[in-house]
């Protein structure tokens, strides 16, 4: 079995290659300067070592700042080569609740979906087939879960979770809010008859927002609204 140390090295090298690709020829010093402007300085040496995969780990804070400096989504630095490149998403092995060991290398898009919560199912990775007559390995192929499996929980691998349900509720809430905004955008430019029809759609969109907000609250979501007044703003 692959050691944890070996997995860390592979993961760091993968992130480093993604940083190197995203920088598009810009220097390590340029990236370091950008990080300082963002209020979280990362030295030129550190940037160089991250990029070349020379460090075994990278703090999440540094990863976020590097992504901001390079103007890419942070997750694109974690799992490059979308959708099908095999990436070392996790160390091989299993937890006490797993029925069998997970594979370290899985398709990048499967890893991304699991990481972001779009899928609750741990990527299945390689599928080993056996000859029914001899019991020998007959064929080994990679499973692309995003093509064949839904993102919902597979009872054989993982029980449903409140965290997964909350992510689904937040997505539904965001979709409802976006729909209300889109329906409101050109309302004043519509004719009187068109406005009448649009009002019906707006009413339904508002109801959908309340339904999804209730769903989020029931799952323990935080729907706090934040405002600041002029007195709360600094001179900057």
TrEMBL record:
Signal peptide boundaries: none
Name of this protein: HTH cro/C1-type domain-containing protein
Any one GO MF annotation of this record: DNA binding
Origin organism lineage: Bacteria, Bacillati, Actinomycetota, Actinomycetes, Mycobacteriales
Species per Swiss-Prot/TrEMBL record: Corynebacterium xerosis
Domain of life: Bacteria
Cited InterPro entries: Cro/C1-type_HTH (IPR001387), Lambda_DNA-bd_dom_sf (IPR010982)
Domain HTH cro/C1-type, first and last residues per copy: 42-77
